[in-house]
Amino acid sequence: MTNTASRREARAAVTLADPRWTAVRARDAGADGRFFYSVASTGVYCRPSCGARTPRPENVSFHASRTDAEAAGFRPCKRCRPDLPPLAERQAAMVAALCRQIDDADTLPSLDALAASAGCSRFHLLRVFRAHTGLTPRAWAAARRAARLRERLADGASVTEAIVDAGYGSTSRVYEKSARPLGMTPRRYRAGGADTDIRFAIAQCALGALLVAASPQGVCAIALGDDADALARDLQDRFPQARLSGDDADFARVVAQVVGFVEAPRIGLALPLDLRGTAFQQRVWAALRAIPPGQTLSYTELAQRIGAPAAVRAVASACAANTLAVAVPCHRVVRTDGSLSGYRWGVARKRALLDRERSD
Question: From CA 202, how far away is CA 228, in angstroms rounded?
């Protein structure tokens, strides 16, 4: 009995001294794929992240691969399924397949049909799909349809051809449905903003040249830079056929408000905004505007805040697509370690904005 107890204690000591045991106790998903562990008392092997009850250390052995674990006589755990790709990878593949199914369909498949093809319940499908894309299947289909409409219009297709090719069943209500992502009617979008009035002005602020532009719907661009002429050319490139006008005394007051907001962020910016983007981008930008001055979030935290924890890259892309500097404060998003990542208007300006907000 003494020898048996001694051997048990010796095996436990070896396990406790192994750094992999810490990952098992923490159920660290980041360790999945790096090693597997087996449990002598149950005869199974698991991933480090397995949700089963933590085994006694004297019963645990570690394996470099699942092949090694099976060669040692252990069978895969039915809970964490170490014989299959990681759960996150399987879910991502499922969502990617569903997105392709939605994109290829002439009409949006029902939620029950999508769930049946994925082999899961509709409730599980909704949760996983939203976690990876930030959207419901219906919102994904609408966003993809609007993207195809923009692409076809940019390629020079007629409005009717673009509407049909994008997957809209008819032209009825297309203008209403597409007004938000396009920011104007399809015909005006195709013509580069023709017959659209955009007022703009350029001022100087503590961060250099500042361009502010507004459509009849609200402020549609706030840009920062070193070269005022370059900012104006960039605006003209975005809307080559729009009627751009400057030197407007009334609009000068709008610009003054933006300059004041840059200098003192805590005063807020009470101006209507013309936000042009997909449904997902709109959600990200709304979450950005909810971050108080002086505070920051990581891209991961921002993804969690909008209910899409797996869509970190999509969140970063939405931040990069923002054209309203300061008003949509993407400068308040940092890396997980707190360091500054890229910024459309320069990392130095991002740092200056954050320093100004923290000291305001």
Answer: 7
CA distances from 137 to 126, 145, 146, 197, 304 (A): 8, 12, 14, 35, 19
Query: Is 220 designated active site?
Result: no
Specify the 3-state DSSP secondary structure of 350: helix
Exactly one of 46, 50, 80, 220 is catalytic; which is it? 46
Is residue 319 annotated as a catalytic residue, yes or no?
A: no
Helix (H) or strand (E) holding 69: helix 66-71
Residue 30 is classified by DSSP as: G
Helices (H) and strands (E) in the chain, counts: 16, 10
Q: What is the pLDDT of residues 251-307, one digit of tens each?
A: 888 888 888 888 887 777 878 888 877 778 888 998 998 888 889 999 989 988 888
Which candidate in 50, 80, 99, 330 is catalytic? Answer: 330
b/e per residue, 135-172, with b = 16+ CB within 10 A?
Answer: bebebbbbbbbbebbbebbeeebebeebbebbbbeeee
218-245 tens-digit pLDDT: 888 899 999 988 998 888 887 777 778 8
How many whole angstroms separate alpha carbon 268 and alpha carbon 360?
12
pLDDT at 158: 55
